[in-house]
Amino acid sequence: MDPQTNNPQKNMLFRILILLIIIVFVFMLLTLYRLRNKTGLQDNFTSVTLPPGTFEVFQEAPNQEVIAKGSFSVQSVSPDTSGQVDKALDLEIVADSSGSTIVGYDIILKFEPDQVEIISATSLLPDFSVFPIERSDHYIVTGAKKLDSDEPSVFANTQILRLTVMPKVTGSLNLKLIDAIDLEKSQMVDNESKILTPQLGEVTLEIE
């Protein structure tokens, strides 16, 4: 065989072999990259994204410590517990953390939608932002301490939140803080990432 004819064939085979090696190498790199990203996502906590400047409240991790501690109560701002139909009135959520420093909280208020409307939620703590969510028969409020706040946040029968409500009918109106519904929980988170499950209160108003 003519050596000059054989050399181009060898060169072509060599180039094809090099190209195949490069393709296999790139494929392996892409596979490793995808596996690494998938593993990294599985290892991370699921979190609620809050606006910049607020504390990021994480959902409960599998090994996160949960303690029965503290209390949430609800009371009328007015000295009496009466109100009128179609006239807004204010309620306060009062919290006690039993000495723990709190960086976040969730409350769930249960109500009858045909009896009352929850109009708004306002933080009574300047270093906490609040994020309300209204459902068909309950109202959820998440409070998150701002990252730039250095103020101590130990709750000692502290008014933390104001709710404005509008009664729709006359008679007894019961508003109750509940411990859990679906995946939501009434809780506090301290500065050591411990979950506090507080005792919960309720209020009954007489509407005319």
Q: Strands, helices and their partners?
A:
Elements: H1 3-43, E1 66-76, E2 82-83, E3 89-96, E4 102-110, E5 116-123, E6 128-134, E7 138-145, E8 158-167, E9 171-177, E10 180-181, E11 184-185, E12 187-190, E13 195-200, E14 202-207
Parallel strand pairs: 1-13, 2-14
Antiparallel strand pairs: 1-3, 3-8, 4-7, 4-9, 4-12, 5-8, 6-7, 9-14, 10-11, 12-13
SSE ordering: HEEEEEEEEEEEEEE
Going by CATH, the architecture of the largest domain would be Sandwich
Largest sheet: 12 strands, mixed
Question: Overall pLDDT, averaged?
Answer: 83
Number of domains: 2
Please tally the β strands and state the result: 14
User: Which residues sit in consecutive blocks of at least 5 with pLDDT less than 50?
Assistant: 38-58
Q: What is the name of the CATH topology of the largest domain? A: Immunoglobulin-like
- Distinct helical segment count: 1
Q: In one word, what is the shape?
A: elongated
Radius of gyration (Å): 29 Å
Amount of helix: 10-25%
Strand-residue fraction? 35-45%
CATH class of the largest domain: Mainly Beta
Classify the secondary structure makeup into a structural class. Answer: alpha+beta
Cα-to-Cα separation, first versus last residue: 111 Å
Transmembrane segments: 12-33
Protein name: Cohesin domain-containing protein
Keywords: Membrane, Transmembrane, Transmembrane helix
Structural write-up:
This protein is α+β, with helices and mostly antiparallel strands and 208 residues long. It has two domains: 1-44; 66-207, Immunoglobulin-like (Sandwich). 20% of the residues lie in helices and 43% in strands. It is built from one helix and 14 strands. The chain has one helix spanning 3-43, and strands spanning 66-76, 82-83, 89-96, 102-110, 116-123, 128-134, 138-145, 158-167, 171-177, 180-181, 184-185, 187-190, 195-200, 202-207. The strands form two sheets. Strands 1, 2, 3, 4, 5, 6, 7, 8, 9, 12, 13 and 14 form a twelve-stranded mixed beta sheet that branches. A two-stranded antiparallel sheet has the order 10-11. Strand 12 (187-190) and strand 13 form a beta hairpin. It is elongated and about 100 Å long. The N and C termini lie far apart (111 Å). This is Cohesin domain-containing protein. It comes from Candidatus Roizmanbacteria bacterium RIFCSPLOWO2_01_FULL_37_16. Keywords: Membrane, Transmembrane, Transmembrane helix. The chain crosses the membrane at residues 12-33.
